[in-house]
Amino acid sequence: MLAPPAGRLALHGGAGHDARHSLSNWLSKCPTSLHEALKGSAEWNLLVALRDNGIRYLSFDGLLGYLRNKGYLLGKKGGVESKVRAVTKDLVDAAEVVHKKGLAVWVSSIKK
Fold it and tell me: What's residue 12's pLDDT?
């Protein structure tokens, strides 16, 4: 499995692997340009707030409870399945935006 863009940039810059998969720790090891592009953005904040290495092992009910505890189901319309789908779509969309920003910074760093 490939590291997220922040992870690849951090490793490319000589940082050691972070087995805890902390997005904030990865970002702190990345070039300043990526840090500035991501830090404080709504997409980055959503990823940091919801990212947990253990959620991939949760059942649907476990994921539902996790998202309820985090407060991310509030304001979502529909039944529980619709709410979970909406939050996971938001999360995937945010990851795509962060990935594109990371890719842009990486491409610009190798062109220099």
Answer: 52
Single pTM value for the model: 0.74
- At residue 102, does pLDDT exceed 90? no
Distance between CA atoms of residues 64 and 69, nearest Å: 9
Q: Are 73 and 83 in contact (CB under 8 A)?
A: yes
Q: Which residues contact 37 (CB under 8 A, 6 or more apart)?
A: 101, 102, 104, 105
Q: What's the rounded Cα separation, in Å, for the pair 64 and 83? A: 9
Q: 86 or 9: whose pLDDT is higher?
A: 86
Q: Which of 94, 68, 95 is nearest to 80 (CA)?
A: 68
What one-character-per-residue DSSP string does 24-71 give? HHHHHTS-HHHHHHHTT-HHHHHHHHH--TTGGG--HHHHHHHHHHHT
Using DSSP's 3-state secondary structure scheme, residue 102 falls into helix
Helix, strand or coil, per DSSP, at residue 75: coil
Whether the CB-CB separation of 66 and 110 falls below 8 Å is answered with no
